[in-house]
């Protein structure tokens, strides 16, 4: 047996082993791709309805937020009305009170002045 035949036999053996290894890897990859395909199908069956329900929920939340925004606007308007009414009542009450206090002070001063003049004559 010469070296060429030995090298050809070694190369043939190596190529057969390499072909078996590649075939084994391809079979394993096929199984992996099959499992990946099944996972994607299940994900599609479960996630799409979940996303649909999430979208409906978000639409309901947005609707409720719009209602809350409307209520807050109404509350702000009511607060402004109460504030304006309070100012009007304050002006309506304090103006006569100020006048009454001024009149009372004037009367007190006048009475005091009259009493002082009366005492001064007497």
How is this fold's topology laid out?
Layout: H1 3-121
For this entry, give a set of tags.
122 residues, mainly alpha, 1 helix, 0% strand
How would you characterize the overall build of this protein?
With 122 residues, the protein is an all-alpha fold. It is 98% helix and 0% strand. It contains one helix and no strands. The longest helix is centred in the middle third of the chain and has 119 residues, at 3-121. The chain is rod-shaped and about 165 Å long. The model has no long low-confidence stretch (mean pLDDT 89).
Summarize the structure.
This protein is an all-alpha fold.
Fraction in beta strands: under 5%
Strand count, sense and barrel status of the largest sheet are: none
Oligomeric state, counting identical vs distinct chains: single chain
- Summed up, the helix count is 1
Average predicted local confidence, pLDDT? 89
Question: Alpha-carbon distance between the termini?
Answer: 164 Å
One letter per element, helices H and strands E, the order comes to: H
- Shape summary: rod-shaped
Report the uncertain regions: none
Structural class: mainly alpha
Q: What's the helical proportion of residues?
A: over 70%
- Counting DSSP E segments of at least 2 residues, the number of strands comes to 0
The radius of gyration over CA amounts to 50 Å
């Amino acid at each position: 047996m010469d070296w060429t035949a030995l090298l050809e036999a070694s190369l043939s053996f190596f190529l057969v082993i390499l072909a078996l290894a590649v075939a084994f890897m391809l079979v394993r990859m096929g199984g992996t791709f099959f499992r990946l395909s099944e996972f994607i199908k299940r994900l599609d069956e479960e996630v799409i309805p979940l996303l649909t329900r999430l979208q409906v929920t978000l639409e309901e939340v947005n609707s409720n937020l719009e209602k809350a925004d409307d209520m807050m606007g109404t509350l702000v308007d009511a607060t402004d009305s109460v504030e304006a009414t309070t100012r009007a009542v304050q002006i309506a009450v304090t103006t006569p009170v100020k006048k009454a206090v001024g009149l009372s002070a004037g009367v007190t001063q006048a009475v005091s002045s009259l009493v002082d003049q009366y005492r001064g004559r007497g």
